[in-house]
Every structure is written in structure tokens, then in C-alpha cells.
Design the sequence.
């Protein structure tokens, strides 16, 4: 069997303990891998002015896949506040390492399945099985931002855009601009990925999420491309909805939804909503998938207040390993992981605090490994 090269990026906070837990499950499967540790996280921002050092980017260019834990993105200890303002004074700007990984390696597909496992006391309803596809590199995440707004940009905008005249008398220091940029290629790639997934997995419906009635240029493009791509998949029902209404409908009738596809920011928001309906962030896993590399992670953050306590639920990370195994083509192993998670959740004997129990992070992982 092939020995995979896996970049192992625990990050900080609870990222470290949930990745440790997921390793218990991977080892039980006898997954043949060389795990290569990568430096990433708040610590490296404080010491090197870079939370994702170049050596880690080089590592990512040289592996089959990566497992990522979580990263703290603001000062936690008193002493760090001063350090952070020093870095800012030097002109260094903190940018989220996970966003940078997505953009550096064109991990355009953020794949977030949210399924209600039977017996989970946290399920909103028991028949939820929604797969979210989130565009992962563009939109409001491009990082093209201005604060203050330079005069030449302000003048150009006022020349080009009528409604912008409202701001005619404002000084560049009085407002800020964050650009939402969506390309035809970016929209098409993620929407096609969603339809292909639906086709391959016998899913019935794909819902394209947007706010095209107001954000006409970018969201209008997303919706238009959604319709165009849908025409290539007549066997799959095409559906669309405004992001605001979608949050209501999803909460009211989650069982009516199947595959969702959204631009970056709406996908970020809607995937947290879907996660909450099936147990919260302790159950939410993500794949950040490109053509050559994929980075798998729990969707939750680093939760510094729980760090080192080994109490958080590792299921999100264990399900992320399932996504990784699937992506690597190790379908049988992936299936085993999911079955074991489903069994432990259904039996209900081992539960972490979020599920009303008192099992530790590692006890939960061990219980899952024992079912394999
Ligand atoms: C997510 C997170 C990230 C995002 C943060 C940590 C930058 O919320 O993966 O959903 O906004 O994409
Ligand atoms: Mg998010």
C-alpha cells in the first residue's frame, strides 16, 4: 500500500488536542502515512511576523494532503497586546493562514457536509443531510481593501458610479472599502463541482445561494452561471434562493434541502447555520480542495478558553479525516470512520460535554477507534 505524505498542522488552542485525537483513529485504520509537522499559528505571528511561514508553504507544495487544527487570531495574554501593536507599527498585516492556504494553493472548493447522525441529542431534526459547497478563494475574501481610501480611487469611483456620489464630500479617512470580486471561472468551478457531486451521489437538488436582487454584479453573475451550469444537468433539480431567506427556510424545513452552493462569505455563514442544526461546531468538518492539494479541518476555531483541557468534541476533526481518506481514494477506510462515528453517537454511551456527557476528547476518539 502507498505511504501518503500528510502535512500535520495542529496550529494552536484546541487545534492541538483535536488533531491528536484524530490520529488515534487514523492509527487504528493502519493508514500508511508519513506525518510531517508544519509550523503555523499565532505563535509564529508573534515571533516571526508570519503565522504561515514560508517553510510551511513549501511543505504544503510537497505533500498528498494536509490536516489542519485551528489557529488563534487575536491576543489572548496581556503581554501579547503590546507585541501585536509593535508588529502593526512595523506595517505587518495579519491575514488568516487558512484563507492564505486556500488562496495560495487555489483550494477553490470548500466542501462542508452536515449530516444529523442518529441519536445525537443536539440534532435540530433527525433527517438533515445537507452538503454545502462554498467558493473558497474569491468574493469578499480577496483581501482588496482600503482604509483609508486613497484619493485617486475615491475620484475614480465617483466618476464611474452614480450612487457613489453620496460620498462626494467625504474625506478618504471617513470611509472604508472592501472589494467583493467574483470571476466567471471561480463561480463556474464551484457550481459545477456541486452539480457533479450531486450527480455522482444521487442527490436530487442543488440550491444556488445569492443576493442577486441587491448585489447585482457579483451575485447576479453567480446566479446566472448557476442557471447555465444547471442546464447541463437536467436530471438534477435546480433551485435558488436569497441568502437572507435561505437562513429562514433552512431553519424551518432543513429536510427539504440537499446540496447548497454559495459564494465565499454566504457559504461561510450558511455552513455555520447548517452545522448548528446537526450538533454545532463539534460536528462540522471541512475539506479545502484544489486540483493538487487538499487541506482538511474541523470548521471550529481554536477556542483558547478550552485549550489544553481535552474536553472539546473531536468528532468534527475525525470526520475531517474521513473527508481526507475519501479524497485520497481510500474509500473503505473513509466508510469505516463514518460508520464508527455514527455507531458511537447512536449508542450514546460516550459523550463529550457539548453532548451532555463528560467524556474527554481522547476518550471520545478512543471510543470511535474501538468501533473500527
Ligand atoms: C471558516 C472560518 C474562516 C473563514 C476564518 C477562521 C478565517 O470561519 O473556515 O469558516 O472565515 O473562512
Ligand atoms: Mg466560518
Sequence:
Amino acid at each position: 500500500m502507498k505511504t501518503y505524505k500528510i502535512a500535520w498542522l495542529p496550529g494552536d488552542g484546541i487545534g492541538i488536542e483535536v488533531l491528536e485525537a484524530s490520529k488515534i483513529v487514523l492509527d487504528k485504520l493502519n493508514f500508511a502515512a508519513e506525518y510531517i509537522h508544519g509550523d503555523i499559528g499565532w505563535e509564529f505571528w508573534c515571533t516571526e511576523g508570519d503565522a504561515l511561514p514560508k517553510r510551511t508553504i513549501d511543505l504544503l507544495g510537497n505533500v498528498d494532503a494536509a490536516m489542519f487544527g485551528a489557529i488563534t487570531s487575536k491576543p489572548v495574554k496581556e503581554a501579547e497586546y503590546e507585541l501585536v501593536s509593535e508588529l502593526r507599527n512595523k506595517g505587518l498585516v495579519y491575514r488568516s493562514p487558512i484563507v492564505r492556504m486556500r488562496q495560495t494553493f487555489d483550494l477553490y472548493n470548500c466542501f462542508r457536509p452536515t449530516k444529523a447522525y442518529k441519536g445525537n441529542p443536539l440534532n435540530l431534526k433527525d433527517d438533515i443531510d445537507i452538503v454545502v459547497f462554498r467558493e473558497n478563494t474569491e468574493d469578499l475574501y480577496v483581501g482588496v481593501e482600503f482604509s483609508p481610501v486613497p484619493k485617486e480611487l475615491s475620484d475614480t469611483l465617483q466618476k464611474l458610479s452614480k450612487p457613489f456620489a453620496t460620498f462626494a464630500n467625504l474625506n478618504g479617512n471617513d470611509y472604508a472599502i472592501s472589494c467583493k470580486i467574483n470571476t466567471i471561472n471561480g463561480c463556474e468551478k464551484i457550481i459545477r463541482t456541486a452539480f457533479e457531486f450531486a450527480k455522482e451521489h444521487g442527490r436530487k437538488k442543488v440550491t444556488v445561494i445569492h443576493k442577486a436582487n441587491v448585489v447585482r454584479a457579483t451575485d447576479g453573475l453567480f446566479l446566472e452561471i448557476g442557471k447555465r451550469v444547471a442546464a447541463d444537468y437536467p436530471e438534477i433539480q435546480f433551485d435558488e434562493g436569497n441568502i437572507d431567506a435561505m437562513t429562514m427556510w433552512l431553519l424551518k424545513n432543513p429536510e427539504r434541502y440537499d446540496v447548497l452552493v454559495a459564494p465565499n462569505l454566504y457559504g461561510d455563514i450558511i455552513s455555520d447555520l447548517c452545522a448548528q442544526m446537526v450538533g454545532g461546531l463539534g460536528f462540522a468538518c471541512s475539506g479545502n480542495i484544489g486540483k493538487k492539494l487538499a487541506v482538511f479541518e474541523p470548521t471550529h476555531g481554536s477556542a483558547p478558553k478550552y485549550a489544553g483541557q481535552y474536553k472539546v468534541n473531536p468528532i468534527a476533526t475525525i470526520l475531517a479525516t474521513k473527508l481526507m481518506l475519501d479524497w485520497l481514494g481510500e474509500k473503505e477506510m473513509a466508510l469505516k470512520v463514518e460508520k464508527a462515528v455514527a455507531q458511537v453517537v447512536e449508542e450514546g454511551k460516550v459523550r463529550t460535554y457539548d453532548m451532555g456527557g463528560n467524556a474527554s476528547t481522547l476518550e471520545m476518539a478512543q471510543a470511535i477507534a474501538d468501533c473500527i
Q: What stands out?
A: The mean pLDDT is 95. The CA atoms of residues 56 and 318 lie 23 Å apart. DSSP finds 13 helices and twelve strands in the chain.
